[in-house]
Amino acid sequence: MRQRLMDATVELLVEKGFGGTTTTLVSERAGVSRGAQLHHFPTKNDLVVAAVSHLTAIRGSDLEAAVARLPRGEGRTEAVVQMLGDHFASDVFTAALELWVAARTDEHLHEAVAPLEQHLGRETHRLTVELLGIDEGRPGTRELVQATLDLVRGLGLANTLGDDARRRRRILTEWARTLDAALRNPQGDDA
Amino acid sequence: MRQRLMDATVELLVEKGFGGTTTTLVSERAGVSRGAQLHHFPTKNDLVVAAVSHLTAIRGSDLEAAVARLPRGEGRTEAVVQMLGDHFASDVFTAALELWVAARTDEHLHEAVAPLEQHLGRETHRLTVELLGIDEGRPGTRELVQATLDLVRGLGLANTLGDDARRRRRILTEWARTLDAALRNPQGDDA
């Protein structure tokens, strides 16, 4: 039942936005009684934060598993970067975006969303460093990982307004090539 | 009067979000009568799209003027990239973000916002190419400019959720260094 509520909440955030997502619509969509829903999630904020948190964790695990199966060596950086791009163009990102933007002007929601966002940010960073197999001790490397994640976040935002996957892939192919070159020639060595 | 309405609308989008911005609040904040406001902007959508369009154009011109005064040569790429970062961390970006996200689930608003977004995207791209003084005919160059703009968009989004300017500057310093190296060694030549 919890899973159905989580799925229905994310679906509604994507379809109707934060403002259009009501607890009544979620219980109808999930086929769960209002009483049972309120027992698990007393408020709309409880529900939306739990849903985005839950589904992002699941997608993160999916991503990790998928990338772990990729071969090492040539092409790995691009594969990792493209997968991050797909991850940030998913419905879960769109649902999270609705939450972030609503939280900007809603103090209570902000209190719940900010720790979730920080946790996810750290986890995604850690995962990216691990997947790329890079040494963050080298000057500039940490910033390049952060830039990669802010880039896919920006592409994810563009995607919600009708951008296309072909453009995203082309940009990420070039970024992967650039990132590889930069990681081979750390700060100061490229002059 | 138009200017006061535009300023008040962007202020309210930043403070209260799209949902909390009403035409009544805008006319009060601007000190403009309801009748006069409705004469110029019959609907909320007319008002918010005009305001974000107007203020983005002004900020774009400010940006262009500021960067045109920068010296050529060493440090120019970083100066351009940092200015783009500041531009996308401004209140006008936050107001535009409110519009984009609302437009995602509002068909009428989408019809008005999509052409504005496309126009701004093209203009910002053109400006960036011009400021960096680069040749887009070289393979991979166009994608690196797009990546730069998607990166600052991602950083702008992070900024709305309490990110800090110091992190942004550090990332963009490294990005500028990487971009300079990539532009010196176009696609294929970096192996």
TrEMBL record, chains A, B:
Signal peptide: none
Annotated HTH tetR-type domain residues: 1-59
Keywords: DNA-binding
Record feature DNA-binding region, as residue ranges: 22-41
A molecular function GO annotation: DNA-binding transcription factor activity
Keyword Membrane in annotation: no
Protein name from the UniProt record: Transcriptional regulator, TetR family
